[in-house]
Amino acid sequence: xxxxxxxxxxxxxxxxxxxxxxxxxxxxxxxxxxxxxxxxxxxxxxxxxxxxxxxxxxxxxxxxxxxxxxxxxxxxxxxxxxxxxxxxxxxxxxxxxxxxxxxxxxxxxxxxxxxxxxxxxxxxxxxxxxxxxxxxxxxxxxxxxxxxxxxxxxxxxxxxxxxxxxxxxxxxxxxxxxxxxxxxxxxxxxxxxxxxxxxxxxxxxxxxxxxxxxxxxxxxxxxxxxxxxxxxxxxxxxxxxxxxxxxxxxxxxxxxxxxxxxxxxxxxxxxxxxxxxxxxxxxxxxx
Length: 287
Known about the structure:
By secondary structure, the chain is an alpha/beta fold. The chain is built from twelve helices and six strands. The relative contact order is 0.15.
């Protein structure tokens, strides 16, 4: 897929790049050498972020760019589940300092920043996508350092540009590419995590159900809600799908856990932010 191909003729759609800033700078920090300024300040992550930004502009040729950030402190997910993301290594002080300094890069380029206390950057992305995805004049590419945002892919209207390795090996996912990789649509990725869990975020899912079984369940029945709707009718359809009595019993006993895990894994589309298409020259890049 050629990431640079999109129409920019007068009256045609424009391309908006949404940056998952935290995810990108985390990846950049761990991928780059431990560079430092003449004052001894760590700069490897900032160098990587700047390199990634230049690569995005060169390859994707955006008309507009906006950046989304996490804020320190608990989110509504932590309030619902105190062990959310428990076990993650504490952020290195050198990385924390560069996350703070990274805002200076976007300010210098007049790239607007979106963030909201109690929400994650993913929720900013989801809210902006929800607002714009029905507009015929805007196409969206989310640039991220992880795979969580794949659930936002929508046809070729909303695509995800993510890092495969380091900061140079990238891949662009549209909805078909997500289906090809996982075997089901992007909208059902939260159901997948709801069933199998997500160790990186300490989302529990149903213990004993792994990727293969979760995939079979979603391909056969669709969402978690549909799975339990079918299960309440009986177990015959599950037996026909070659699901063992043990798996059926795990499902029966795990409805509350899987519903809760799906909620934690679902990117919000209703964060209380006010988004507007960038208008300043850095936000609307001139080519």
